[in-house]
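Morning F.,

Quick status update on the modeling queue. The single chain you submitted on Monday has been processed. Sequence for confirmation:
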Amino acid sequence: MVQFESVSADAGQLFAFFEELGYLGTMFLGNDYRPYTMGWQVPHPKFGLGGHRDFLFFPESAIGSTIPLPLYERIRTSAAASAVAGCPASSMPRARPAG
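Structure tokens below.
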């Protein structure tokens, strides 16, 4: 699992790197999880549309251990709600916990 802050200039390369590894990702902003591709489309409470954003990327195998199931469900639910609002589906966590 990798948690990091990024500015928009670095984000594309970082996202591509983790996507190539097959990692799932989310952005944590304002006490909520959102699809990481929303990035700078959503205002930050301190920085508006600028500044850094906080991201979490993890392998599917982390679900149920490092990423507790209730947290994964929270991430997945938030991503699904964002997809309904027009966020690209590719940014949604796609894994389902085993068992």
